[in-house]
Design a protein that fits this description.
Elements: E1 4-9, H1 13-24, E2 28-34, H2 38-47, E3 52-54, H3 57-64, E4 68-71, H4 79-87, E5 92-95, H5 103-116, E6 119-122, H6 130-141, E7 147-154, H7 158-172, E8 178-186, E9 200-207, E10 212-218, E11 235-240, E12 243-248, E13 252-257, E14 261-265, H8 271-287, H9 297-316, E15 320-321, H10 330-337, H11 348-353
Parallel strand pairs: 1-2, 1-4, 2-3, 4-5, 5-6, 7-10
Antiparallel strand pairs: 7-11, 8-9, 8-15, 9-10, 11-12, 12-13, 13-14
Helix pairs in contact: 1-8, 3-4, 4-5, 7-9, 9-10
Length: about 350
């Protein structure tokens, strides 16, 4: 059995989730780990069988020539790490969502990757939860009739959560590409966050197959008070001519169909159950080019373009055509155009989360 070597860059919570899942899979060997904090590196190495450590990702990639270059870093670090992975000869690059903070970087990164011919996986791993899988199964079965709307909402701010909402609803819609997007945004507090975002963003997407997408993310998004964990109050689903089906990230799933009536079930986003199949499908793709990972770059970029188009529309007004053909700095546009007014919230807890108390 072939075994693939892995270099994991960034040993925070998500980096450790990835490293531990790679380490637990016999198809992979964690050959190296990298972080700018030596103490964090030493602690991680002790849990991972003593891989090579370093604080310079590019140098470590050149030394180890890993098959898989995985990085779990803040979202402003995309281009240099993709370049380091390609220069190190990686066969597969895995990294955290979102694809990029701006369309200028997304287009640049995608071009680098396409030219290199390397496989890429973006971490939208919630889809492996049994509740997400059940909702997709109901939608794909035709039980909803003709699907006309997909939707997603989350209380967490955009750069943390909107990529998830869009990707899973694009999955529900069989990755039909977007045709246009139109959005609005409010609140400047989270523009200074390490996941920079407007406090609230919402908008509409027209998909090529006629389905409409509706998204809300942040302080003004609808609360899901029946879900205990604030970060898990995320709702994604689809509506059709004969019913609906939706998933709550930490609250199970529910559906109503013409023939099945009301149905519901449990489900909870949990890294220990969601990460193993996400990692295994990387091995499957490395073994067989035909077994393309569902979290591949092309899928992720369909969602990334929608997310960026909503921001561009919020800053400039009007509809934004998709796919994006010109590069822009959406972060700069939002900082320049968003009104300096406090965001209006949907629930009391959001006042604390968005610095209003």
């Amino acid at each position: 059995m072939s075994q693939y070597t892995v270099l994991v860059v960034g040993m925070g919570k998500r980096g450790m989730h990835h490293a531990a899942a790679f380490n637990a899979n016999p198809k992979f060997k964690v050959a190296g780990i990298c972080d700018i904090d030596p103490a964090r590196l030493d602690a991680a190495a002790a849990k991972l069988g003593g891989p090579r450590t370093g604080t310079d990702a590019a140098a470590l990639a050149q030394e180890l020539k890993p098959d898989v270059f995985c990085f779990c870093t803040l979202p402003h670090l995309r281009t240099p790490l993709v370049q380091a992975a390609i220069a190190g000869g990686a066969k597969l690059i895995a990294f955290e969502k979102p694809v990029a903070l701006t369309s200028a970087e997304m287009l640049r990164v995608r071009d680098l990757i396409r030219k290199a011919g390397v496989k890429v996986v973006v971490s939208h791993q919630h889809r492996y939860g049994k509740h997400y899988q059940k909702v997709k199964e109901i939608i794909a079965s035709g039980a909803l009739g003709r699907v006309h709307t997909v939707y997603g909402s989350a209380l967490g701010w955009m750069t943390h959560m909107l990529s998830h909402l869009i990707d899973y609803t694009c999955w529900f819609n069989d990755y039909s590409p977007g045709v246009w997007a139109m959005g609005q945004a409010a609140g400047r507090a989270k523009l200074a966050d390490n996941h920079p975002s407007p406090d609230y963003i919402g908008g509409f997407v027209q998909f090529a197959n006629g389905v409409r997408g509706i998204y809300e993310c942040g302080a003004g998004a609808p609360d899901q008070p029946d879900v205990a964990r604030w970060w898990g109050r995320n709702r994604m689903g689809a509506q059709g001519t004969e019913g609906f089906a939706e998933v709550l990230t930490t609250g199970g799933w529910r559906a109503v169909t013409k023939t099945g009536g009301y149905q519901s079930g449990e489900g909870l986003m949990a890294y220990d159950s969601d990460m193993p199949p996400y990692i295994q499908e990387m091995a499957d793709w490395l073994d067989d080019d035909q077994k393309v990972h569902p979290c591949n770059l092309e899928h992720a970029c369909l969602g990334a373009e929608i997310m960026l188009a909503l921001q561009r529309s919020a800053a400039e007004g009007g509809q934004v055509a998709l796919p994006l053909t010109t590069a822009a700095d959406e972060q700069a546009l939002l900082k320049a155009k968003l009104a300096d007014k406090p965001v209006l919230v949907s629930c009391e807890q959001n006042k604390k989360e968005f610095g209003l108390v």
